[in-house]
Amino acid sequence: MRKQLAQKQNNACAICGRIDEADGKSLALDHDHESNTIRGLLCMRCNTGIALLGEEPTVLLSAVKYLRKHATPPPMPSV
């Protein structure tokens, strides 16, 4: 299962796309804790992040809105 997922995801995290140099072996096997359904492979940073935010889509979307609201605007191009 893990090998097939790693190949399907090109040995990259399903959220951030960070490539795993160990052919997917260091990616976490992410699953729904209620149904035990496997969702995909995630890097430790993304797996920990969604876990700390309670795996709640509304909380994750709220975090995205917050980051976008407080993002530093890109520098103006020089003329």
Average predicted local confidence, pLDDT: 91
Major β-sheet annotation: 2 strands, antiparallel
Instruction: Note poorly predicted spans.
Output: none
Judging from the principal axes of the Cα atoms, what is the shape?
flat
- Summing up helix and strand content along with how strands pair, one would put the structural category as alpha+beta
What Rg do the Cα atoms give? 16 Å
- How many E strands? 2
Describe the structure.
The chain is about 35% helix and about 10% strand. The chain contains 3 helices and 2 strands, in the order αββαα. A hairpin with a 6-residue loop joins β1 (about 30) and β2 (about 40). The model has no long low-confidence stretch (mean pLDDT about 90).
Distinctive features:
flat; alpha+beta; two-stranded antiparallel ribbon
Structure summary:
This protein is of the alpha+beta class. The protein has helices at 2-8, 44-52, 57-69, and strands spanning 28-31, 38-42. A two-stranded antiparallel sheet has the order 1-2.
Summarize the helices and strands and which ones pair or pack.
Blueprint: H1 2-8, E1 28-31, E2 38-42, H2 44-52, H3 57-69
Antiparallel strand pairs: 1-2
